[in-house]
Amino acid sequence: MSTRILAVSSVVLSFACFTGCEKPVQPLPIKSIEKNYDRPLPPGEFALRKVTDPAEYPNFADAWYRAKGLGLREAVQHSIDYLKAPSSRAYFPVGPITHENAMASLTRFLEVLDASNSPEMLDELIRENFDVYMSVGCDDEGTVLFTGYYSPIFNGSLTRTEEFRYPLYKLPAGLQKDATGNVVGGPWSSREEIERERLLEGEELVWLGDRFEAYVVSVQGSGFIRLPDGRRYEVGYAGNNGHDYTPIGKMLVEDDKIDRHRISLATMIRHFQQYPQDMDEYLHQNKRYIFFRESSGGPYGCLGRPVTPGHSIATDKDIFPRGCLTFVDTFVPDDSGRKKQRFRHFMLDQDRGAAIRAPGRCDLYIGVGDKAGRRAGYTYHEGKLYYLFAKGGDRPTESYAKASSR
User: Fold this and answer.
1) Quick one: which H or E segment has residue 236?
2) Residues 257-286: pLDDT tens digits?
3) Could you read off the pLDDT of 285-327 as tens digits, one per residue?
4) Residue 397 above 50 pLDDT?
5) Which of 9-18, 46-55, 234-243 shows the highest mean pLDDT?
6) Of residues 25 and 242, which shows the higher confidence score?
7) Are 255 and 263 in contact (CB under 8 A)?
8) Which of 26-35, 171-180, 250-259, 394-403 has the lowest mean pLDDT?
9) How far is the first Cα of the chain from the last one, in angstroms, to the nearest whole number?
10) CA 366 to chain centre
11) Distance from CA of residue 323 to its chain's centroid?
C-alpha cells in the first residue's frame, strides 16, 4: 500500500473500529444468513459485471441534492489529479477499463452534474451517458458488506517522556524502494526484529502513549497525533518493510480471545490492556511495518490524494480500478446508531485497507475524530456497489448534448 490513512474498518475479523468512547460500539445487525464477505475473487475473473438491463440500475435521482454540493466535486477533482500523474497508468487496464475511460468518466460526470437541474435529469443523464457495472460481491449476486472507517486522533509527543514511550519510526536510511514503492531486494527486517533489536533507535519521529495505538498507526500508514500543547501533528506514509500484512483480529477470534461478533479495535484495545502479555504473541505475527514522515493536508488515501468524508471509499485495489466513480446503495446509521437510513450516493474509489481484500467488502470514509469514529463503528450493512464509466470513451452522447442545451 502506498499511503493509507489512519483509518479502521468497523467490522469483524481483520480490523475494526476505534470508537473514541468507553463503551463498545456494536454494529447494526444484518438480517440474513451468515455470508463470507471476504470470499476472494477467483483467479482471472473481473470484479465488476456490466448491468445490461437499465431496469436494474439504482435510482441515481436520490443522490442529486448531495451530489450538487462542493464535497463531491472536490473528491472527483482529487481522482482527476491522480489520473493525470503518469504513474497512474501502471494500474490500468483493469478488465476492460482503460486509463482513458477512467479519466473520461470523471470529466463527463462533472459535465453531467453541471447540466442537471433536477434529480430526474441527473438520473436521465447518468443512464444515457454511462455504462453501469456492479461488483460481483461476496456471492456472485452483488452482495457487498459496507463498513465505516475514520481517522482517529491519538495522544503523543515529539520527544520521549515517561507517558509517551512507543515510537513511530522514519524510513530507514538503508531501505531502498523501486518506482512502484516496493522494497528493493526483498523484505526488510520484520516488525519483531525492528522492536526487539531496536534497529531504528534514534530514528523516532513521534512517540505515543499506548503500544497498541502505535501498532494501529504502523499498520494503517498515516494519522493525527494530539501533542501535549494541543497542536495536531500529522504523520504520513513514507514506506514499508516489504512484508505482507497479517490480520491479528482474525487470530484473536480463532483463539477464542474475543467473540467474533464483538471484534473491533475498541475490544482489541481492551483485551491488550487487560492481557498485555499477549501483545508479543499477536503483534509480532504481523511482520508488516510502515514508516512515517511529517505530513500535512491529509488525511490521504492510497492514491496519494486527500480522501473526503462521505465521498471516498476504500476497496481492494488489486481487483477494482483506482480513482473511479462509484455509486453506493446501502443503509447507514444515524448519529445515535439506533436507526438506519437509505444511503444512495456517488463516491470515489480512492483508498484501500489491509482488511479490505475481496469484492464483497467496501469501507465508507466517515471523517476525523471521535464523532466520526462512533459513526464508523455503527456502519455495518449489506448493499450494492456500482461503478460508472462513460459511454463512447470521451465523446458525449447525443442525449447529453441535447440536455446541456436545455
Assistant:
1) strand 232-240
2) 988 766 666 678 889 989 999 999 999 999
3) 999 999 999 988 888 888 989 999 999 999 999 999 999 999 9
4) no
5) 46-55
6) 242
7) no
8) 394-403
9) 45
10) 10
11) 12
Phi-psi region of 338 (alpha: psi -120 to 50; beta: other; left: phi over 0): alpha
In angstroms, rounded to a whole number, what is the distance separating the alpha carbons of residues 51 and 56?
Answer: 7
Compute and round to an integer the Cα radius of gyration of the chain.
21
CB-based contact 81:350 (threshold 8 Å) = no
Lookup result for grid cell 451530489: 67
Grid cell, residue 60, equals 441515481
Q: How far is CA 63 from CA 112, 225, 248, 346, 354, in A?
A: 13, 35, 37, 7, 29
Q: What is the pLDDT of residue 258?
A: 85
For 20-49, the pLDDT digits (tens) are: 332 333 444 444 446 888 899 999 999 999
- Give the span between the Cα atoms of 166 and 163, in whole angstroms: 9
Predicted confidence band of residue 180 (pLDDT cuts 50, 70, 90): low
CATH architecture of 152-294: Beta Barrel (2.40)
The DSSP symbol for 137 reads T
**φ, ψ dihedrals at 84, nearest 5°:** -70, -25
In the three-class reduction of DSSP (H, G, I as helix; E, B as strand; rest coil), residue 389 is classed as strand
Helix axes 99-115, 70-84, angle to 10 degrees: 160
Fold of 48-149+302-404: Barwin-like endoglucanases (2.40.40)
**Under DSSP, is residue 333 helix (H, G, I), strand (E, B) or coil?**
strand
Q: Read off the pLDDT of residues 148-172 as tens digits, 9 standing for 90 and up.
A: 888 888 999 999 999 999 999 998 8
- Give the global pTM: 0.79
Residue 401, class by beta-carbon neighbours within 10 Å (0-12 exposed, 13-18 middle, 19+ buried)? exposed
229: β partners: none
* DSSP codes of every residue in 313-326: EE--TTTS-TT-EE
* In the chain, where the domains are located: 48-149+302-404, 152-294
Number of residues assigned to the chain: 406
How many DSSP H helices and E strands does the chain contain?
Answer: 11, 14
Grid cell digits, residue 295: 505530513
In this structure, are strands 340-351 and 312-314 parallel, antiparallel, or unpaired? parallel
